[in-house]
Sequence to fold (310 residues):
Amino acid sequence: MIDQLYRKAILTVSGQKFVEDIVRKQGWGLAQRFVAGEEVDGAIAAVRELQQDGILGNLDLLGEFVASPEKANEFAEKVLHLLDAAHTAGIPPYASVKLSAVGQGQTVDGQDLGLTNARRIVGRAREHGGFICLDMEDHPRVDQTLEQFRILVGEFGAQHVGTVLQSYLYRTEADRSSLDDLRPNLRIVKGAYLEPDSVAMPDKADVDASYRKLVYAHMAAGNYVNVATHDESIIEDVKHYALAHGISKEAYEFQMLYGVRRDLQKELAAAGYRVRAYIPYGRDWYPYFSRRIAERPANVMFVLRGMLKG
Ligand code: FDA
Fold:
């Protein structure tokens, strides 16, 4: 309960314009702990560095909801550029995309622009032998994201596109089983948005229990699972569950955020688990940075200390 209150407080404060202005002015130096750079070169350099420790990358051009079709198309072009740049650098392009950033909810020529742009992006990833994960955003977008995911899997195959389910939502257990026919590659997360109690569990213990349940169910159904968490007790339990049920290390991977628990990422990779770091980059780092601060009280001290020094 305290965790949820803390998260709500931080996300509410960081949503204030004056707080954003101050942090944007002074915060880039601090944001670099969680963000690999403002340009694509920084992200590719981060992938190469992680590769030395046997850790894979999941590239994410930072950006959230945009209101104009021009901006959405511009963003989609930048994602295509990212996929080409990774391919040219000899890295199989594995990237994450927020559909709201490429036009989800805007109708152009009778089609949802988010889906039109997602088709271009997943198509390009497939050309390069890559993979796109559709990030999950706040709860009003879940229905449309899952519908569009289903369409994209039908057109491009589950080996080139996946999505995310959030264990804090009451609806997620039913969503997971409704996708089983696609044999989907899913990333399971706890959930990072400010959601009302009517849709999301307010108690962390329930969110954690729901997380384990989702991962086990997805594994038991024979699907590939991205176990995206820094929660060591969950990671240990998932390892034991897989061992006890004869699920091979090829059937799942651990995912963590760039700049968070690098020690644990290295340890898991050294033990032969597939590990992938989510590597965000780009100029629109503020909302992403705020969610990371909201996840852990110690991160607020990190920001305050940094700002006082600056
Ligand atoms: P929890 O919050 O319980 O933390 C477990 C431990 O990790 C604690 O010790 C904690 O202190 C430490 N920790 C967690 N976050 C930290 C941080 N920022 N800095 C330092 N330590 C930290 N969410 C979403 O809604 N949609 C999405 O698409 C995604 N995508 C995504 C991809 C990947 C690869 C990851 C790892 C996470 C996401 N998330 C997400 C975010 C997710 O919902 C969640 O907010 C964070 O992962 C934090 O929750 P944990 O599972 O780590 O557990």
